Amino acid sequence: MSEPHPRRPAGASPLLVPRRAALALPGLALFGHFRARAAEGDPFLLGVASGEPAPGGFVLWTRLATEWRGGGMPAQAVPVDWVVARDEGLRDVVRRGQAVALPEDVHSVHVELSGLEPDRPYWYRFTALGAASETGRARTTPPPGAAPARLRFAFASCQNYEAGFYGAYRHMLAEDPDLVVFLGDYIYEASTARNPVRSHEAPTARDLAGYRDRYALYKTDPDLRAMHRACPWLVTWDDHEVSNDYADDRDGREEGEAVLRKRAAAYKAFWEHMPLPESARPRGAATRIYRRAGFGGLARFHILDDRQYRGHQPCPKPGMGGGNLVPRESCPALDDPGRTMLGAAQEAWLREGLAEGGARWTILAQQTRMARFGTPEAPHRYQTDNWDGYPAARRRLLEDLVASGAPNPIVIGGDVHAHVVSTLRPDFDRPEAAPVAVEFTGTSISSPGPRYGGTYPDDPHVAYADGRSRGYVMMTLTPETATAELRALTNVRDRETGITTPRRYVVEAGRSALTAG
Q: What residue ranges of the chain have pLDDT lower than 50?
């Protein structure tokens, strides 16, 4: 499904080397010693994953570790064999090879495959240190000219390990989506949950070791591991992968070099633990993760990054950075046309991509809520850490969407820990104007939510808002309709929780309008 990352020529990736060359690398003479470690614990404790599905391939991921703390492995290179087959039993093998898990990448492995058959499932497995991983299922996507009948994908965000269990993924797995789109806050760098159900068992992550341990802990969760194993993921990040409410080089407590140091460590740990290609490897405190992905002629995803390039939030509390609730009339900086959420280069890239069209449905996969949504009391206050803090940038994006003629646009988001369903207009003060897109903001996997509910007279474009439940959104696209099912857990503190669907909405192709289904 991925379009933006250039593929390296066969054999060019530093992580993919021929078997004989791999065995000659420094440190592999100790392979026998490492093999003995398999008896001490499963070296595939953190599971397997696939991502970036395309018509000819995908990225496979694993990370060797027998424990989640402290790197989980001795500081030596380890050969890792991999196999890809057309069947779950791995008898009809189509590719096999060997990668090298390097200590400088905390023994993570990213295998980039191309040249496979389009639009079909594949199964894969890794072996190392005398042990085998669980078998994962990946898939390739239909080619650009194809007309698939359906795409079923889930989107999710905000999985605070301490705030609840990941029962959402158990239910998501049972629904068997083709794809998961994760919209940020994969980890929480700090302990913020009240009355936690489980513990990070570590202080706030601020350096590479801390961020690595946090990802490793999260990946020990069996429901999260199972969902990664079941289908490919497209991932982006939000703030808690670095620190709460960070924007460029400022967060709630620090700014400048201190934040950039955290960013460099956090970005590297993110890449090490996600099924991303070598081209997404960070360079210090920077990397490009905005990109496009397609599913034949049915859907085109524009995956955005609204943290790395954004301007600082306006009108912060004295002595603090980050978001704040402010009345519109008391914060003139809100309307500064020079302020940006995506940065000039990403805005131009998105404008160009929208104009290209290329599919029946246009999906903007971004981190947070885009619709204007104030508090119900008067005077109304707006949260500056989401698009309400960047209204000029939001208007530019929505005007670009109109000018591009991009077909059937749908915006998906997370971050706010609530299901919010809206229609979008460049000018929210003109409710009589026709909407230009619909938006589905999904609630959190586990993070506690706000007390949203009822109606919002100042924001009539908001059709539904509920922050009481945890869960995700399951979306089904066909050439005629997009159906969004808002999934809500019964009790996030119960690992075996049930689930309901409080709302279902249908969007007909050719109309940016919501119909309750």
A: 2-39
